Amino acid sequence: MMMRETLGNYPQRASECEYLTLAFSPTSAPLRSRWRNNGLSADFLGDYVTTFLPTDGGITALKNKQNEIKHTVTYIANELLENAMKYHQPDVEIPIRIHLELASDHITVSVSNGISVVQAGRYKEFVEHLQEGDAGDLLLRQQEESAKSSESTVSCLGLLTIISDYDAKLDWRFDVHPTQSGSMTVTTSAVLPLKTVPGASA
Amino acid sequence: LKNIHGESFEIRLEEENSTVLFKGALRLSGTEDYAPILDMLKETLIGPPGLIVLDLRELDFLNSSGITMLSLGLSLKLVTTQGSTFRCSLLSRCRGTLAR
Lengths: 202, 100
Description:
The structure holds two protein chains of two kinds.
Chain A: E1 4-7, E2 18-24, H1 31-50, H2 60-87, E3 96-102, E4 106-116, H3 117-132, H4 135-145, H5 151-166, E5 169-176, E6 183-193
Antiparallel strand pairs in A: 1-5, 2-3, 3-4, 4-6, 5-6
Helix pairs in contact in A: 1-2, 2-5, 4-5
Chain B: E1 3-5, E2 9-14, E3 19-26, H1 31-45, E4 53-62, H2 64-81, H3 84-99
Parallel strand pairs in B: 3-4
Antiparallel strand pairs in B: 1-2, 2-3
Helix pairs in contact in B: 1-2, 2-3
């Protein structure tokens, strides 16, 4: 088995950029009591990026753009963290990590968590299905079916909204655990282009 | 039920049950946690015919599970009146608006 597999164009870390990583060891408290940390962390990341998006003395268009990007980063971080918290394999020593990177023309939000090889296989199938189809169409179809859905279907909806509603590009990386062959670390990475932001720089 | 609230959100029935007011950030963990809110929406929407307002102006954040809950609540009314094609277009528009 390959030690690392990527789906999509998994982004390389920019050589010089601002970045921030938060890590959680999710075995220490039950999911329900940790759930609020998703929102707190996502809000923090959304606020954090605003420092690097100048508003040039309060020009309304720039202020609106800053708010839009803040909301987008918050939404993406929250969805990716929710998925990681829900599907993390609790019995391996793999932390859940969220990583934010700011480059001059894009923002990357990546979240990693531990999963079993079986779960990884199912996730890869979903990703391949997603890469073949249109995210907007898949989203509508899944919403139509969501009345009878399982949690896993609902979770995929989060990824579809990230692509369809926020124009972010998703890529995936699967790493085999160095000592536990039944476990993997999956990293889902969302890249948000900043081309349309006048005056934005990291 | 006239009021559902959590640490970061509040949902209230107002104006003699014709307005559902959403406030704050809705980030509940899934279908089960959203069930009481969906039930409140269903009860309101299957009531006597008339204008029902979902006031989302003070809703700051809605996660994808919440989008699903809201679209299920809305589709309930539309399926009985307009059919599924209209339902699709409304869901799409609803999502686009909430995303901003």
